[in-house]
Design goal:
By secondary structure, the chain is α/β, with parallel strands linked by helices. 35% of the residues lie in helices and 19% in strands. Helix 5 crosses helix 7 and helix 10 crosses helix 14. Belongs to the glycosyltransferase 1 family. Bacterial/plant glycogen synthase subfamily.
Length: 508
């Protein structure tokens, strides 16, 4: 047997031990331990989802687990606790400053992925989303709620959570987990941390008088720390203290180093880029997005045979109160907010309808856009259909049945809808920004326009309408879009490279 003292397991790097067998012969035995990755997230689509992060948190760890011992850490929201059937409490994490104590639960997903859950009903057992109440207002104690998440991640990385497991690397996501890398730094720990920015516009900014109750040293409230224009910023803390920063497309990684997209953090991000510590890695989509097997579709189809699209289109038309038509069907599947260019889609409606097109819209968001869309549907009965809210089946059938997806986003870190649409043979019409620029080849797998203006958007729509009238060209573009690589393999490979660099830097 090997003596445990012979094993070097610093930061989970592959280790080599030498053992003397009972025969007395000297043999080198290579012992390779998979690195342990704690993926820290405020949402995961298995249980609760507010946006694209939930989809990524469900897919990326699964793509990585063939190479790593990857586990999830998530708050114990009501929706999470009700769905993990084998959850058991394995530890108690103590209170710190104004952050309450909590239990640490351990369970598994249906396919065996280990999930750690923070058991703290006073913080997480509520109606609403992870971030807002049922009226759409931020929870007043969001700083405490997500400081608890960051502190727990740091505790687990230091071996103070699961006595049988500790993380070699933390993979943090957006502002809710941003303080984890800071807590490690303030403890003098060099455990590598990766922060992925899914949307720089959401930063987790709070009053500076919250520093004491969050356990943040006063000395950290400066430009080289957590201070952001007089506020405490969870996201800036994550960017400043993490070993490496990633974001969700290469174009967006470049954009956020410039003032127009950097949301006030462009200077720090430019510095990280110059240091070689900022990478853009495009997201993928999971294998369930397959029109030949999707159970939500009324008729399945493939890139070789599109006939099923018409049946799905007719189902969408009926569901959204649209007339039966052989004309083009446009879809909007989106949060109804300014960032997504909803106002541009509303203003372009006359152009689409006048050319015999129809529009189906599903989503929710700002009240003014919801009201405008309802009015639009009233003015164009049979041509414009709107559903406020979200339904997975409706959304999938819209991707499958539509000819075009409208995505005039003013900025889009990655975007998943354009990839869903492409996989289902719907051509995205999108602003050339962020992940849209990286995943849509203009005139081949969709249509791009160069500035978020109504005129440029209408020009792209007209190009789409011209393509619709050319059946051979439409078929060629649909096939190219459906056959574009959409999976997570390439993204997971890039994350492996980043993890390796971060671990090597921690050992230097």
């Amino acid at each position: 047997m090997l003596d445990s003292s012979q094993l070097d397991t610093v930061s989970g790097v592959s280790t080599l031990a030498h053992a003397e067998l009972l025969s007395g012969s000297q043999v080198s035995v290579s012992i390779k331990r998979r690195q342990s990755i704690l993926f820290v997230t405020s949402e995961i689509a298995d249980y609760i989802k507010a946006g694209g992060l939930g989809e990524v948190a469900a897919a990326l760890p699964r793509a990585l687990r063939h190479h790593y011992d990857v586990r999830i850490l998530i708050p114990g929201y009501r929706q999470v606790l009700s769905q993990i059937k084998d959850l058991e409490e394995i530890a108690r994490l103590p209170a710190s400053f104004g952050i309450p104590a909590c239990g640490l639960g351990r369970g598994t997903t249906q396919d065996g992925l280990t999930v750690y859950v923070l058991l703290c009903p006073e913080l997480y057992d509520r109606d609403g989303s992870p971030y807002v109440d049922s009226f759409g207002a931020d929870w007043s104690d969001n700083d405490i709620r997500f400081a608890r998440l960051g502190l727990a991640a740091a505790d687990i990385a230091c071996g103070n959570g699961d006595t049988l497991w500790r993380a070699d690397l933390l993979h943090l996501n957006d502002w809710p987990s941003g303080l984890a890398s800071a807590y490690l730094a303030w403890r003098g720990q060099r455990i590598p941390t990766i922060l992925t920015i899914h949307n720089l516009a959401y930063q987790g900014n709070f009053d500076r008088n919250r520093l004491p109750c969050l356990g943040i040293p006063e000395a950290a409230f400066q430009i080289n720390g957590v201070e952001f224009y007089g506020k405490l910023s969870f996201l800036k803390a994550g960017i400043y203290y993490s070993s490496h920063i990633t974001t969700v497309s290469s174009t967006y990684a470049n954009e956020i180093t410039r003032p127009e997209f950097g949301c006030g953090l462009h200077g720090l991000l430019r510095t990280r880029a110059e240091e070689g510590r900022l990478d853009g890695i495009i997201n993928g989509i999971d294998a369930s997005w397959d029109p030949s097997t999707d159970p939500y579709l009324v008729s399945r189809f493939s890139a070789e045979n599109f006939r099923g699209k018409r049946a799905n289109a007719n189902t969408v038309r009926k569901s959204f109160g649209l007339d039966l038509s052989s004309g083009p069907l446009f879809a909007v599947v989106s949060r109804l907010v300014h960032q997504k260019g909803v106002d541009l889609a509303i203003s372009a409606t006359e152009t689409i309808v006048s050319q015999g097109g129809q529009i189906a819209v599903i989503g929710q968001g700002e009240a003014r856009f919801e009201a405008e869309l309802r009015n639009l549907s009233s003015r164009h009965p049979g041509s414009v259909g709107v559903k406020i809210g979200y339904d997975e089946g409706d959304a999938r059938r819209m991707y499958a049945g539509s000819d075009f997806l409208l995505m005039p986003s003013r900025f889009e870190p990655c975007g998943l809808s354009q990839m869903y649409a492409q996989r289902f043979g719907s051509l995205p019409i999108a602003h050339k920004t962020g992940g849209l620029a990286d995943t849509i080849e203009d005139g081949v797998t969709g249509f791009l326009f160069g500035e978020p203006s109504l005129n440029r958007f209408k020009d792209a729509i007209r190009r789409g309408l011209e393509t619709f009238r050319s059946r051979s060209r439409l078929t060629t573009m649909r096939r190219a879009a459906m056959n574009r690589p959409h999976g997570w393999d390439r993204s997971a490979s890039r994350y492996q490279e980043v993890y390796e660099r971060a671990c090597q830097a921690a050992l230097a």
